[in-house]
Structure formats: structure tokens, C-alpha cells
Design a protein that fits this description.
It is built from 13 helices and 10 strands. The chain has 314 residues and is α/β, with parallel strands linked by helices.
Length: 314
Amino acid sequence: MQELLNKRYAFLFQGVGDEYQDFLHLLDEKQRESLKKYCSIANKKIGLDLWNYLFYSIPTKYEKMFSDWIAIYTCDCVVYDTYINLGIKPELFLGYSMGLITAMTCGKSVSYEAGLQMLLMIFEYPQYVAKHEEGMGAIIGKNYYQVDEIIQKSNLKPYVNIASENNEQCIVISGIKDSVNQVLKAAEAEGAIKVTEINAPYAFHSNYAVEGIERFADLVEKLQVEDSETPIISVFNQDIIQSTSALKKELVKNMFNPMGWKDSVLKIGDLGIDTFLEVSLGDSITKMSRIINIDYEFLTYKKLIRLKAIWSAS
């Protein structure tokens, strides 16, 4: 166990997309008590009964997608607390999309309650402006330049943006839904290994997400935001940020700027940190990140708990 504690860690925070009901068996009694406290706050703050949604599949007053967002955010905070209680200390945070909010909460830059407010505003703010139907998708088996070429050949450049380069062969696109689907079909026809629609209500990380962004920006400006206890690497330009002013700007950029996940992971490696720990109950971030550099080490919650059990028994 001491070998694990001595490593230099970058903590990786996922965005949205997972459903956590199937992972709850991984939580012990102490973690469930922690989760219950967070759930109580969520119920009081935004009226979302997360506990009964997670454990008894009772629908909340919100759409299922948003309930799952809050489930991910909350459970990932519990996972982070578990790592800290085990004595594992991060040197750097990296958040994928809305994982930035989780990272800032865990870094004590914003409160858990403030994170709830931001997630609710992110879900709601685009509803207040006239929009076309938007969507997102992922293309596996094509690189950034190949996807960009497909968009240009399809004459869809104004309607589809590259939202993230997850790794050399996994590209996320975002924009008008019909146009996104056209690019997905074209990529598949040109030999992509897999294409898939992403369950997202809006075209995040594209210029379409700028419409109505003022509502979210106003909320960020009013929230109490402190310097982060742990530095955060920007997924947009790979700068190391920690101050209140930089983090507020990052939160707003996080809605519409394209991400450079691959470049961010590589930059962390350049800083001499080559061990990455996913702060979630699953392994979605690890799956897409571990091929960025095969010399880097990626750990997940399940793997860490398994190693801990082995060391405790020996």
C-alpha cells in the first residue's frame, strides 16, 4: 500500500453519460452514509431526491438525464473523499467537460451546493433561447484531421464542430443534430470502427452553446468561488490554473470551447506525473485515456479497492 501512496497522482474527473445504479454495490457502509448526507443536501437545495432515485429507481421531478448528472457528480465526490481518506493525495486535477465542476468541488474551490446550482443552470440555460435541435456524437477509428476533412467534404463546417480529441482515434463532434448524424454516417462509410450518438441535450463544446450563456455566466459571477486547494490543468489550453478569477473564466469556457483531452493528458506526463487515478465508480475515462501513452499508469476505483484488499490480507 505504501507504494501506492508514494506515487505522484493526477486525478481525472469524468463528465456525464454513466448511470450509477449498477455500481452502488461497490460502496461500503461508511461510503453510503457519506452519500446519504450529500443526497440530503441535494434534496434541500434543488428538490432532487437522489437517494430514492439511486437505490429504489423512484423518478425525481427532473428529467432522467439531469438526475443522472447529479448522481455522477455526487457519487464522484464520495469516491474522491474515499481516496483522500486512504491517504492518496493528488498533485493535479483534470476534468472532462462537467467533470471540471466536480474537480472544483473536491478542490474546495466551490461548495457541493454551488456545484448543484451550476449543473442545474447548465441543464436549463439553453432552454431560454430559440434553438435548433442539437446533438453530439463520437467517432472511433478516425483521427482529428480525418474527421475535420469529413466535416468539410460534407459542407457541414458551420453546423458541426469537433468538441474533443479524446485520443488519437476517438473524436467527439457537436452541433446541429441532423448535421452531426450526417457526419457520423459519413465517417462510418469511410471506415470508422464505431460511431455513436451521445445522449446530450445540447451541443456542448461548440459555438451553439454560446447562445444563452449569459445566464450561466451571471450565476458563476455571483457564486462564491475560492482558489482551488489542488491545481487544475485546463482542458482547453493546458495552462495550470488555481486562482478564483481563472477558475471562473474556465467554468464559462467549459460550456462552448472545444476540449483537448489528449493534449492535456500528455502535458501532465511532461510535468513528470504519469500515474492517473479516475475519480468515479466506473472506468470510462480510463478506457479512452490509457491509449494516449501506453507508458502511463491508469488506476480505477475498483482496481484500487482490490489492491487494498490484497495488501490488507497479506
